[in-house]
Amino acid sequence: MDELERKRATTDSFGAVAASYLDSDVHREGADLELLASWCDGASTALDVACGAGHTAGALAETADTVVAADATPEMVETATDAFPVVGTVADAERLPFSDGAFDAVTCRIAAHHFPNPDAFVSEVARVLAPGGVVAFEDNIVPDDDELATFYNRFERLRDSTHGEAYSAAQWRDRFSEVGLSVDELTTMRKSLDYESWAERTNPGEDAREELDELVRGPEAEEVYDVTVEDGKVTEFSNEKVLLRATK
User: Fold this and answer.
1) pTM of the entire predicted model
2) 193 pairs with which residues across the strands?
3) How far is CA 207 from CA 10, 14, 211, in A?
4) Domains of the chain, each with CATH number or no CATH
5) Cα–Cα distances in angstroms (integers) from residue 248 to residues 127, 134, 210, in the given order
6) Which is nearest to 89 in space by CA: 40, 128, 31, 134?
7) Would you call 243 helix, strand, or coil by DSSP?
8) For the segment 129-160, what is each residue's pLDDT rounded down to a tens digit?
9) Which pLDDT score, from 0 to 100, does residue 198 have?
10) DSSP state of 65
11) Is the Cα dihedral 56, 59, 63, 66 positive or negative?
């Protein structure tokens, strides 16, 4: 599957589940969301790339004068603009339709593992950011161990065929640095997830779900996800995320 086909598949997949992302506890609240929004305090114009159902854009709108919620999936943009006081734009994260230096702040939260070309995304973020502006970025990350990183991406693709690749915190830091942005803060945190709702949100096929349920009980999943089992049933697990603040 080439990059264009991957993007179309991702758009189709997320268009079908936009409402479930609006209601998702993982996306609509949390210390990670609060931290990203706080890094953008003082911004007048802000852009949220791959906005999803709009939770990050909505948080930015509490302080910024103008917030643009951009996503490649029209249904996600519609969901965001219906729920929050933001301007919606259908846009590819790797080809942003904005002028150079248009925004004081740019955010992207838990989305970049879907991008076929993350280097193009980072370059575009740097381009549309005004001098002195802030990038507030978050995404799921893989362990430093290569075998566990491979397991992580395999596990995620079983649940969601549009999952491209997750990277390490160091790889994301290097990407932003390479386009001339200064990484001022970098932290990681784990977020607990309800396994059942996580597994079903993207409507995996029956075979994929059976394999997920088998793998989640294995030693690799225990090491990567810190799985919780109660009465023989997997109830929760957690994944690790990087939160990065960079300035131009």
Assistant:
1) 0.88
2) 237
3) 20, 20, 6
4) 3-146+160-192+241-247 (3.40.50.150)
5) 10, 7, 46
6) 128
7) strand
8) 999 999 999 999 999 999 999 999 999 999 88
9) 87
10) S
11) positive
